[in-house]
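As a point of orientation, let us examine one representative protein, giving the amino acid sequence and backbone structure tokens.
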Amino acid sequence: MNEDMLPEPEFTAEQTDPQQTQTPAEEPEVAAAAPAEPRETAAPAAAKKENWQKQLFKDARDVLYMLAIFMLVYILCFRTVVVVGNSMYDTLVPGDRLLLINNLLYRQPQAGDIIVASKDSYRNGECIIKRVIAVGGQVVDIDFESGAVYIDGVALDEPYLHTLTLTSEGLTFPMTVPDGCLFVMGDNREDSLDSRSPMIGFIDEREILGKAVFVLIPGVDEETQDRDFDRIGVIG
């Protein structure tokens, strides 16, 4: 072996190429900007719409409750009737629609009240509307010459009359009104069938349907042919 020749170094698996020992400079890490989150506009709009719908439902429910209560009170405490005939003219005229306090609340009739009653003995229970002149225990007397009406000996002041009480309809006066009954007459005395007649006589308080308190819709006055809307209101 030639001594001038040295054996070449062998590369092993752990060795690296000298030209590959230098590592490239690492680039600085740059954080990626997070994508901007979209504004939450849809959610508040949906919530606002839902709240509006809930409020609308609540308001509608409250209105229905109030209507139901109103109808219940009306059915139990009130009723309406339409005037037929001229016996109460001109306090009331034919066609007047009236509001009544019904007999559930109207328990103590008084002289001067305008009532609606139904007598089975008169035209199979047809309703009549008259003014209370006397109540149970009072004595009624009528002077058919002057038209004056006396209650317990005292002449009545009747500014509501359209015609005076000049016609006897068959009963004899004076008379005492039985307890629990009423003596009634129309304001248009010469065109009224009432307690002066045996066809009607006394009104039992149990036959009362109610007290007329309010003109809701005025009828047409047959004399003037006008509908006077100023008459809407409490009945005098």
